[in-house]
Amino acid sequence: MDLHLKIWRQKDKQSEGKLVSYDLKELNPHMSFLEMLDTLNEKLITEGDEPVEFDHDCREGICGQCGMMINGIAHGPLKNTTTCQLHLRSFKNGETILIEPFRAEAFPVKKDLKVDRSAFDRIISSGGFVSVNTGQAPDATAIAVTHQTAEEAFDSAACIGCGACVATCKNGSAALFTSAKITHMVLLPQGKEERSSRVLNMVTQMDHELFGHCSNTEACEVECPQGISVLNIARMNYEYGRALFFRKK
């Protein structure tokens, strides 16, 4: 199949970027989207041009590194699918594909399609952990956790931190990411001891990173490749109000 690509090229975050057109022919429709970009880069290197910079790692939909906007949609047209798990068979022969980096004030472009998502790391560092000495691993049945609670915690922990929620939100909010990290820890016994300090620190850091505020459009859940529920945001708001209440007492 043949594709016409319009890709955002930007030397660094200080430089102005622009869309550059490329044509690729005789592509295998079973190639992944990132394999298509690899093919383009091989062509560019052969021709003596600068290859397109983009993030990737596991290429199995686990690490969350491969995020980009494809035809204006985070990770592309398939629901609950990361860019690396997207294949060319999802597009039509001869189609024009617009490829851009995730755009948010908190995600400055480093080069081409590669953005700086270290703001997420700083949110996690501010409170997304359990600081207790656990010693040896306890027996699996020593701490009682209901099946429903375990499933809810696992659903929240499935967040891969790709940033699609931020990129698709009109406000550039990180509420879904932050709330998922808060929720999966507060649901489990090990995370309850620091529940108040955790939510206060993580929400404060989120605001410090210049992410926008959540206005409940729920676009983040729609574009999330893991289908993380916006109910996590409601729980984060509850936990935040609770922490403020007990801090004032």
Automatic annotation (TrEMBL):
This is Succinate dehydrogenase/fumarate reductase iron-sulfur subunit. InterPro entries: 2Fe-2S_ferredoxin-like_sf, 2Fe2S_fd_BS, 4Fe4S_Fe-S-bd, Beta-grasp_dom_sf, Helical_ferredxn, SDH/FRD_Iron-Sulfur, Succ_DH/fum_Rdtase_N. Its cofactor is [3Fe-4S] cluster; [2Fe-2S] cluster. It comes from the Bacteria. PROSITE patterns: 2FE2S_FER_1 (PS00197), 4FE4S_FER_2 (PS51379). Residues 150-179 form the 4Fe-4S ferredoxin-type domain. The lineage of its organism: Bacteria, Pseudomonadati, Bacteroidota, Flavobacteriia, Flavobacteriales. It comes from Chryseobacterium antibioticum. One of its GO terms (molecular function) is electron transfer activity. GO terms for biological process: aerobic respiration; respiratory electron transport chain. Belongs to the succinate dehydrogenase/fumarate reductase iron-sulfur protein family. Coiled coil: none annotated.
